Fold:
Amino acid sequence: NAGVTQTPKFQVLKTGQSMTLQCAQDMNHEYMSWYRQDPGMGLRLIHYSVGAGITDQGEVPNGYNVSRSTTEDFPLRLLSAAPSQTSVYFCASSYSPGLGTEAFFGQGTRLTVV
Amino acid sequence: TQLLEQSPQFLSIQEGENLTVYCNSSSVFSSLQWYRQEPGEGPVLLVTVVTGGEVKKLKRLTFQFGDARKDSSLHITAAQPGDTGLYLCAGRGSNSGYALNFGKGTSLLVTP
Structure:
């Protein structure tokens, strides 16, 4: 099983550029989410989706957009990259957001904005 | 956002030693999970605890959920180099809807 697949694994952007981080899962999970991980800050929730066509903001949504047109895909768009968005980004999916449900994570995208 | 505080932030021990990692909050959590993350990888679930006072064992790892469901601990017996990694606690609060909130993690290094 592929699980959660993120592309690219590494990316360098110039300030002001835009890009899309891709996330796909093959487990038919309804709930998907994006996190960023910074040293000493843990994982912080950016956006999440409870199903196709439904998205909502997490703790740190500014500068990011998401959409969910299919169950499988949940891309994260950086509209105008800033150095503060240098981070490691993780996509996660779970069968449901309910009590005790396991979250499956991708391998991450390491983004550097110069 | 319901905050989860983890301690210690860093831990360096020798193979064979025991250790305990703590996860505390002022909020009540309906469930709490422990994940382990290795360099260059995403977190992987170790255990979920749901009931106050619950104790779960996974080989040399023992997880406990506090009676008030505000705290949890992870105890490793006779640590091995393969236990090295970042240990993260995560909780879904009773009022946080769909959000899975993570602590900042405990970075564990076990040397031979």
